[in-house]
Design brief:
With 94 residues, the protein is mainly alpha-helical. Helices cover 43% and strands 6% of the residues. The longest helix is centred in the N-terminal third of the chain and has 11 residues.
């Protein structure tokens, strides 16, 4: 049984070269920190994503909308969240 790493096409296009360098840069990239003034505008609430969280579930728990959270945090569909990710919660009720 051959592994994906031993396949020449995969090795040539995914493990070395510009595609691999771009992928590594994207993985290592960090979103710029939210300035304090922007955090004040969102009400100052922050939430740390836990395993299994969805944007709509977080919104329901905190009394706001998924679209509002997505907009405040620069998220785009499909709204993939990572455990440990910190979200600003704009105008959330609790």
């Amino acid at each position: 049984m051959s592994s994906w790493c031993s396949r020449p096409l995969y090795r040539a296009n995914c493990l070395d070269g510009p595609r691999a360098e771009r992928a590594l840069a994207l993985v290592q990239a960090r979103r710029p920190a939210v300035p304090d003034a922007a955090r004040v505008a969102t009400g100052g609430q922050r939430y740390t994503v836990r395993s299994g969280d969805t944007l709509s579930a977080i919104a329901r728990r905190h009394g706001c909308t998924a679209q509002g959270i997505a907009r405040a945090n620069g998220l785009r569909p499909p709204y993939a969240l990572r455990p440990g990710q910190r979200l600003d919660l704009p105008a959330c009720g609790g």
